[in-house]
Design brief:
disordered C terminus; 335 residues; alpha/beta; TIM Barrel; single chain; globular; 11 strands
Length: 335
């Protein structure tokens, strides 16, 4: 088990300009020395091979996070334990350096394949920054997906990577409505700050895009045009969306948060999700997990695709659930 830190560093002391005011929430920090940090993916639904996750758990506390069940491998819960018991992989940069000497030749290294690599503790530990420096030394392209405005700190090295082996940054922006964002993803940066992050990185020469994920029917589907328009204006070049998927553990967390924060919408949202997922709240099947079915799903994806094309977005770089013609293979619709 990871070792609990008695007096963990306070990221708000050194990075308030990115993080804002500290929330009134207790944080437990655990440190470990990882044997490996370069995860190799074999899922046909995920369009990349290698990813790096310097942290386990995520302080952003997004109610819909698909990674929540991974905390159960540590003997903890998928709810508030995932949000407040954060594991820090102290030796992540050193291990990554060692692993890149052996494998991933020519492969892009993806950051935040599981939990956000720019969550608040990164301000103190700087593990993501050090891992980017490792990738730079090894001349490896990187792709980052995040909600954290802390990534602005690393604008210069990301720009250097973009001019060299390559770098893309995807901002996860499922909401344009700041109040709704705060209700469902309470400690992530506000949408307006994410748009500004896109602007800063785009101006620095980093290729940027957005992940409109998850699509939550009855909640954020009407916000699709506004999100795409504002992100495009800020410099985003590609966009993709995925449908909300609620495994058993995540479903409990999401429904509890939804009914507490937005009680008047809860039944509508859950009913619409089940309509898109053939009576279920998730699908375990490859080729089906990130997309929906039926007239409502078709209407949402038409809205997304029409707006995307009108605004001149390129094809999505990460490829999760782009909307393609129905005649193509179902699995192909994910790429």
């Amino acid at each position: 088990m990871p070792r609990q830190v008695s007096n963990p560093p306070n990221p708000w002391e050194s990075a308030r300009e990115w993080l804002g005011e500290p929330p009134l929430a207790v944080l437990e920090v655990f440190e470990e020395r990882a044997r490996s940090v370069l995860s190799e993916n074999s899922s046909p639904d995920i369009p990349f091979r290698f990813s790096v996750n310097p942290y386990r758990g995520c302080f952003h506390a997004c109610a819909y996070c698909y990674a929540r069940p991974t905390h159960q491998y540590l003997g903890w819960g998928a709810g508030t334990d995932f949000d407040r018991r954060i594991v820090v992989k102290l030796n992540a940069p050193e291990v990554l350096d060692h692993e890149l000497k052996k494998k991933a030749l020519g492969e892009t290294i993806h950051f935040s394949g599981n939990t956000d690599c720019y969550q608040p503790l990164e301000a103190s530990y700087r593990l993501t920054r050090q891992c980017l420096e490792v990738c730079h030394r090894h001349e490896r392209a990187v792709a980052v997906i995040t909600k954290g405005t802390l990534i602005r700190r690393d604008e210069a090295i990301l720009a250097d990577l973009a001019r060299g082996p390559g770098a893309t940054v995807t901002l996860s922006i499922p909401f344009d409505d700041a109040a709704m964002s705060r209700a469902i993803e309470p400690f992530a940066s506000p949408p307006q700050e994410r748009y500004e992050t896109l602007r800063i990185l785009s101006r620095a020469g980093v290729e940027t895009g957005i992940s409109l994920a998850p699509l939550i029917p009855g909640l954020n589907d009407s916000q699709i045009p506004a999100i795409l328009e504002k992100a495009r204006e800020a410099g985003a070049r590609y966009a993709f969306l995925t449908l909300l998927r609620l495994s058993r553990e995540v479903s409990v967390v999401f429904e509890e948060r939804l009914r507490e924060a937005l009680p008047g919408r809860a039944n509508k949202v859950l009913s619409a999700l089940e309509e898109m997922r053939r009576g279920q709240r998730s699908s375990p099947d490859f080729g089906d997990r990130m997309r929906g079915h039926g007239p409502r799903w078709d209407a949402v994806t038409r809205l997304f695709e029409t707006t995307r094309r009108r605004l001149g977005y390129e094809e999505a770089k990460l490829g999760a659930a782009r909307v393609l013609p129905k005649k193509e293979d179902p699995q192909g619709r994910l790429f």
